[in-house]
Each structure stands twice: as C-alpha cells, then as structure tokens.
Amino acid sequence: MTLEAASLELGGWARWHSADLPLRVGVSSCLLGEEVRFDGGHARDRFVTDTLGQWFEFVPVCPEMEIGMGTPRPTVRLQEGHGIRLVAPSTGEDFTERMLTFAEAKIAELSRLDLDGYILKKSSPSCGMERIRVYRDNMPSRRNESGLFASRLLERWSTLPVEEDGRLNDSLLRENFIERVFSRNRWRGLVRRGLSRPRLVLFHTAHKLLLRAHNEAAYRRLGQLVGSAGTIPDRQLFATYEAEFQTALQTMATPQKHSNVLYHALGYLKRALDPIEKREILTAIEDYRKRLLPLVVPLTLLRYNIRRHSVEYLAGQLYFDPHPKELMLRNHA
C-alpha cells in the first residue's frame, strides 16, 4: 500500500476515535453497582457508570467472588508471612494460592479480549492499586502494597492503562488515564486494519504533539524508530513501537509541557496571524501555564485559527481532540 492510499484510508485520524472497535475496559464489579462486596453491598461509582459508561464497554471482574468466597463474607487483608498473604483474620483462612492461580488465568483471559484499560477498586486487598495496608501480628506494619490481584495485573500487563476509582477524582490523573485508553484503542484499530509501514508513519505523525506533551525524549526515540523502517524486520518494528508508545503516555502531561506544545503549534501560524491575534493566543497560553485558565481556552483559540488558515499538519494532530469533548477533561484550571 502506498502512503497516499493509506492516508485516504486513515483520513479519520484527526477524529478522536477509531470508530470500528469498542472501547473495552476491565472494571471491579462493585464499581458498576453489583452487590459483590464483603457485606453484600456495592460501591457504585457514578463517574464510571454514568459518564465513562457512555463511551466504554465494561468487562466486570470481582476476584473474591470468582474464587468462591461468596457474599456476605469475612473481610480479608494482606498479612506478612511467607511473602504477602491474603488472609481472613476472623477465621485464619488463607486465600493466597487461590487468588494467585485465579489472577494468572483471568489476566490471560482478559489479554485475549485485548482490553483498552482497567479501573480497580481502591483500598481493596485484592483490587487496590496502591497504598494497601499490610499487617504483622494484627497491627498494620506498612501501607505500600497493591492488592493481590492488582499486583499481578500491573506486573503481567505493564503497558495497560490502569487506574483506581479514588485516583480518578484527580483531574490530571483522570485525563491521563482516559487519554491513554483512547490512544490504545486507536492503536488496536490500526492493528485490526493491518499494520504496514505507511500506516505506522501516519499513526505516528497524527500523535506527534500528543507524545511531546507527555515525554519529549520518548517522542524523539519513536521518531527515530519510525525512521528506521526497512532496516529492521516489520514485526520487531511494530512491537517495539507499540511498547514505547504506550509507555510514553504513562508520563504525565503537565502545564509546562502543554505550554511548550502550544507555543510550538503557534509557530505554524505566526505568518498568518496579525499582532493582536498572536498576542491574544500568547496571553492565553501564559495564563494557562500559570494555571489561571483551563487548557481548553488556548486550545480553542488555536483550533479556530488552524481551521481558518487551513494548517493541514496541525489539523491532523490528535493532540487537539484526543478524546470526546463531552468528557470536558481539559476544562479545569
């Protein structure tokens, strides 16, 4: 396939969604309102169900129910022993081996579904992502572990976008997670259509500014990798690119990084704008950098002028629309 033919086929890169694959996300079942908690209740998260549910196709998982613990059930916790153990303190029953065996099988099953992300339940000794208490002799000794199932998920699937419900209350963490989910979905769409060097070039080109907002060094490495096409086997090229791409987006985009990208984009318009228009955008970028304005303000000004002056390169950059505007992820200062 020629680059021109691939460009026509993938002309939708300027839009946020690949359109042909559902956004499939694993989730702790209790967050969807399923009554699977130890007390027979749930922990429904309205942001997950009512907001993300408009876009995501959820794959619910409750490790404790799926290893046969039932509900209601005795509480379990992480304890020091021969390694970290998952134990019910009221009965002394040890669920460690059952949970680890389940985790390996379940993660393999989920990998065949090729998820775009995963949302875990905070504070859970099985599903918590971080800061889970570990006990020694009935006293908490530290609080720096992941839940037993979550630790295996994070270890076995290191490039999968993973967050927990509590951390999604942080606007920057929320945006980073959702941006990674949509980016992974676009990659899956590309794989489904069939990877080729021309398509990889187009994919990388459309994500350039987005990558720079996260990790400048990784952006440069990926550019060198794409430029090496033809000197290494295609299979190696595509696998290396995917891993590096997913890892690059794990680095948080900051106001300073976004500002650098916005200034870079403005450079493409410097000859088209009059001094007053340019000053207006520069002021908006600086006010955003100082956290006086949300990111959406300078982005809107730039988007308007990109359309007005038909700047083709910038019009094709997913940085300006990496996810649906209805999620309002860039509307916070």
TrEMBL record:
One Pfam family named in its UniProt record: 2-thiour_desulf
InterPro entries recorded: 2-thiour_desulf, DUF1722, UCP037004
Domain of life (superkingdom): Bacteria
Coiled coil: none
Transmembrane segments: none
Every DUF1722 domain range: 208-324
Protein name: DUF1722 domain-containing protein
Provenance organism: Candidatus Methylomirabilis lanthanidiphila
